[in-house]
C-alpha cells in the first residue's frame, strides 16, 4: 500500500504530444478511476504508471520513491489487462503464482497465497485448468486473482470489465469495489464507461485529449461539472445543453435559446456572459407539470422511451433536442404538446466560448 | 423446445436421383480415400524404390527391374561405409546443419522480436532488405561468396560453409518468426514484465514457448536446407575430409558410371536424420497454443 503521485507527467510519440502534463495525487488506499472517451490518453497514462511506456517528462512516484526509470517488475504493482493476458501454457494456479515464483518465494508460501486468493474469488475448483478451458468471467477472475496474490503497492486496472456481458459486468463491478475496500490497496482503474467510474471510485479523473478536465468525488463531478465536456460526459442520459442568451425584463429572467424558444429562469443566473452562454440541465431536473403552472414552458414531445423505472421524453426547444426523465408514468403521445418546468436549483451555466462553468 | 415439437415435422423428400443419400456418402468416401491413396503412393513409391534398390545386388539392379529384391544384400551399405568412408560426410553434414539451425534460430529470434516489438528508424526498409536478400538466387551469389570465403581464409572449411548457409537461412527464418511473434499478444509479455521478468526474460520464457510451432517450422526448414544443399558445398569445399553428404554422394559418380546400389544406400542413410527430425518437430507443430490467453 502506498501513495501514488503524478507530477506534470507528459508523453509524446515523436513530436506528437499525447499527454500534456498531468498531475494527480492519489492517497494511500484510494480507488481512483481514469475516465474519458477513446483516445483521451487514459490507458497510456496507466501504462506509464506501470512502466510499460516510457515517460517523456514529469515525475511518477509510488510510495516515496520516484519510479520514472524503474522497470515494471521493480515498481511493485499488479495490473489487470482488458484482455486478461493469462499465460495460455500455464494452469490457473501457475498463472496466479508466477510472480511469486519469479520472486523466488518458497513453494509453500506460493501455494498458501494462491489458495487464499482462489478462495476469495471462488476459483478453488478451477486451479488445475488451463485458461482455454475457462469462461470469460472465470478468466477475468483469474486475472484479478493474479493481481491480489502479489499484495502489491498499487493495483492497475485497464478496462477489466469491458469484455464481459452486461450482467456479469455489474456483478464484477460490485465485487471489485468490495474487494478493494477489504484489501485497502491503492487502485487506479481505467474505463470509458462513466457509470463504472461513478459507481466504483472514491475519486474520478475525467480526461480528454491528454488533459485532465476535472478531478473530484463522483457526485461532486455530477453535481457541479467544471465545464461542458465533463457535464456532457458524466451522467446517462447526458445533460441537456442549450446555447442561447439571457433576457431580463422587469426583474424577470428568461433564457432565449438559439432557435428562439423562451424559457423562464429565476434570479440565480450568473451576472457575466449573459449574451452568449450554455444552459445545462440534467434530464431528471426537468419535470412535467400541469398547464398553467408558473415558470413553466410548453414544448412538443418528439419521442417517448419508457424504460420501466422511468420514461425518457425527447422534446425540442428551439433547434435543440432535449431529454426529460420522469419517474411517474405519464401517458403522453408522440406529437402532443406538454408542459415542462426546470428545477431552478439544479441549473448549470457555462461560458459558450470556452465551455467553463460560470456560477 | 416445446414450440419446435409443436411444429409439424417436415417430410424428408425422396430424391429423384438414382443414388440415395447413403450411396452418395459412400461414393464420396471412396473418392476421398482413392485420391489420398494416390497421393500416398506418389510420395512413398520413390522412397520404396530407393530402399529396395539399396538392398539389391548389382546384377538385379541393372538387368531386371523387379519390385521386390530377389536376394537381399547389405553389400551396397558395406561398400558405401567401409570402402567410401561415408560416415565422415554424414557427420560433417550433421555438424553443419545443426550449427546452422541453432545459430539461425537464435539470431533470427532476436531479429524478428526487434522487428515486431520495437520502434526504430528504417525498420520498414530493413525488413524489406531482409526479404530481398532471401529472394536473391543462390546461383547468382556462389561465385562472389566463394571469393569472399577465400579472402576470409574460410574456403574449403566447414566454418565457411556454416557462415554461407547462415546468409541464406537467416532472412527466411527472421521473416517466418516475425509472423509467429506477431501472433503472441503484447499484453502477455507486458504481464510477464510486471510479474518480474526482464524484456529478455519475457522473450525467452513467454514469447519463445508460445511460438514453439514457429521455432519448429524454422528449425526444420533451416536444417533441411543445409542438409540437402549441394551447389554451394560443391563450390566451396574441395578436400575429401570436409565433404558433406550430398557432396559425397555426388562424388560417388565417376564420369558416366552411376553406382546405383551405393548411391541409393547413401540416399537412405541421408534420409534418416531428416525423418527423425520431422518426427520430433511434428510434435511441436501443434497449432493453437495461445488459445484462451486473451479474449479476441
Automatic annotation (TrEMBL), chain A:
The keyword Repeat does not apply. GO terms for molecular function: ATP binding. Residues 4-234 form the ABC transporter domain. Keywords: ATP-binding, Nucleotide-binding, Transport. The keyword Nucleotide-binding applies. Belongs to the ABC transporter superfamily. NCBIfam families: PRK11650.1. This is Sn-glycerol-3-phosphate ABC transporter ATP-binding protein UgpC. It comes from Devosia algicola. The lineage of its organism: Bacteria, Pseudomonadati, Pseudomonadota, Alphaproteobacteria, Hyphomicrobiales.
From TrEMBL, chain B:
SUPFAM superfamilies: MetI-like. PROSITE patterns: ABC_TM1. Residues 90-281 form the ABC transmembrane type-1 domain. Keywords: Cell membrane, Membrane, Transmembrane, Transmembrane helix, Transport. It is a multi-pass membrane protein. The chain crosses the membrane at residues 30-51, 90-113, 125-150, 162-181, 202-227, 260-281. InterPro entries: BP-dep_ABC_trans_perm (IPR050901), MetI-like (IPR000515), MetI-like_sf (IPR035906). It holds the Pfam family BPD_transp_1. It is found in: Cell membrane. Gene3D superfamilies: MetI-like (1.10.3720.10). Belongs to the binding-protein-dependent transport system permease family. This is Carbohydrate ABC transporter permease.
Amino acid at each position: 500500500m502506498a501513495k501514488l503521485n503524478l507530477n506534470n507527467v507528459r508523453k509524446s510519440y515523436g513530436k506528437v504530444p499525447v499527454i500534456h502534463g498531468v498531475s494527480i495525487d492519489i492517497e494511500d488506499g484510494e480507488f481512483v478511476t481514469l475516465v474519458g472517451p477513446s483516445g483521451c490518453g487514459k490507458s497510456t497514462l496507466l501504462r506509464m504508471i506501470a512502466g510499460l511506456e516510457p515517460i517523456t517528462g514529469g515525475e511518477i512516484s509510488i510510495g516515496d520513491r520516484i519510479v520514472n526509470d524503474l522497470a515494471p517488475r521493480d515498481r511493485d504493482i499488479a495490473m489487470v489487462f482488458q484482455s486478461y493476458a493469462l499465460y495460455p501454457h500455464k494452469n490457473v494456479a501457475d498463472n496466479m503464482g508466477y510472480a511469486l515464483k519469479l520472486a523466488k518465494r518458497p513453494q509453500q508460501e506460493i501455494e498458501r497465497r494462491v489458495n487464499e486468493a482462489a478462495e476469495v474469488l471462488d476459483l478453488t475448483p478451477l486451479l488445475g485448468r488451463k485458461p482455454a478451458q475457462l469462461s470469460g468471467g472465470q478468466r477475468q477472475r483469474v486475472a484479478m486473482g493474479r493481481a491480489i496474490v502479489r499484495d502489491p503497492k498499487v493495483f492497475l486496472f485497464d478496462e477489466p470489465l469491458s469484455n464481459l456481458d452486461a450482467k456479469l459486468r455489474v456483478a464484477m463491478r460490485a465485487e471489485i469495489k468490495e474487494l478493494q475496500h477489504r484489501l485497502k490497496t491503492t487502485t487506479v482503474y481505467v474505463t470509458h464507461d462513466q457509470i463504472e467510474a461513478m459507481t466504483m471510485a472514491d475519486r474520478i479523473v475525467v480526461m480528454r485529449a491528454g488533459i485532465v478536465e476535472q478531478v473530484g468525488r463522483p457526485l461532486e463531478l455530477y453535481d457541479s461539472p467544471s465545464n461542458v465536456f465533463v457535464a456532457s460526459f458524466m451522467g446517462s442520459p447526458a445533460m441537456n445543453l442549450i446555447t442561447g442568451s439571457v433576457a431580463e425584463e422587469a426583474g424577470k429572467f428568461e433564457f432565449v435559446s438559439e432557435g428562439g424558444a423562451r424559457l423562464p429562469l429565476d434570479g440565480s443566473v450568473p451576472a457575466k456572459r449573459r449574451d452568449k452562454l450554455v444552459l445545462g440541465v440534467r434530464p431528471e431536473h426537468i419535470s412535467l407539470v400541469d398547464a398553467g403552472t408558473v415558470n413553466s414552458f410548453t414544448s412538443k414531445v418528439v419521442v417517448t422511451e419508457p424504460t420501466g423505472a422511468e420514461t425518457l421524453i425527447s422534446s425540442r426547444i428551439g433547434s435543440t433536442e432535449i431529454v426529460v426523465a420522469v419517474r411517474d408514468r405519464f401517458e403522453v403521445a408522440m406529437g402532443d404538446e406538454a408542459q415542462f418546468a426546470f428545477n431552478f436549483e439544479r441549473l448549470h451555466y457555462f461560458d459558450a466560448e470556452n465551455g467553463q462553468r460560470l456560477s | 423446445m416445446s414450440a419446435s415439437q409443436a411444429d409439424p415435422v417436415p417430410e424428408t423428400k425422396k430424391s429423384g436421383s438414382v443414388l440415395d443419400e447413403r450411396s452418395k456418402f459412400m461414393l464420396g468416401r471412396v473418392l476421398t480415400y482413392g485420391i489420398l491413396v494416390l497421393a500416398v503412393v506418389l510420395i512413398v513409391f520413390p522412397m520404396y524404390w530407393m530402399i529396395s534398390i539399396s538392398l539389391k545386388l548389382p546384377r538385379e539392379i541393372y538387368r531386371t527391374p523387379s519390385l521386390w529384391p530377389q536376394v537381399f544384400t547389405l553389400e551396397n551399405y558395406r561398400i558405401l561405409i567401409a570402402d567410401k568412408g561415408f560416415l565422415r560426410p554424414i557427420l560433417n553434414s550433421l555438424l553443419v546443419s545443426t550449427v546452422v539451425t541453432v545459430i539461425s534460430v537464435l539470431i533470427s529470434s532476436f531479429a524478428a522480436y526487434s522487428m515486431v516489438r520495437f520502434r526504430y528508424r528504417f525498420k520498414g526498409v530493413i525488413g524489406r532488405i531482409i526479404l530481398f536478400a532471401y529472394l536473391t538466387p543462390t546461383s547468382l551469389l556462389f561465385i562472389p561468396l566463394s571469393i569472399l570465403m577465400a579472402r576470409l581464409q574460410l574456403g574449403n572449411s566447414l566454418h565457411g560453409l556454416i557462415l554461407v548457409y547462415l546468409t541464406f537461412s537467416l532472412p527466411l527464418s527472421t521473416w517466418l518468426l516475425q509472423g509467429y511473434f506477431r501472433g503472441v499478444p503484447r499484453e502477455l509479455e507486458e504481464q510477464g514484465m510486471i510479474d518480474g521478468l526482464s524484456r529478455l526474460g519475457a522473450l525467452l520464457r513467454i514469447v519463445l514457448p508460445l511460438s514453439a510451432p514457429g521455432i519448429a517450422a524454422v528449425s526444420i526448414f533451416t536444417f533441411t536446407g543445409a542438409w540437402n544443399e549441394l551447389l554451394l558445398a560443391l563450390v566451396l569445399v574441395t578436400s575429401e575430409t570436409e565433404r558433406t553428404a550430398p557432396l559425397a554422394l555426388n562424388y560417388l559418380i565417376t564420369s558416366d558410371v552411376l553406382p546405383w546400389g551405393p548411391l541409393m544406400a547413401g540416399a537412405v542413410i541421408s534420409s534418416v536424420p531428416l525423418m527423425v527430425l520431422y518426427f520430433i518437430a511434428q510434435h511441436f507443430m501443434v497449432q493453437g497454443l495461445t488459445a484462451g490467453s486473451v479474449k479476441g
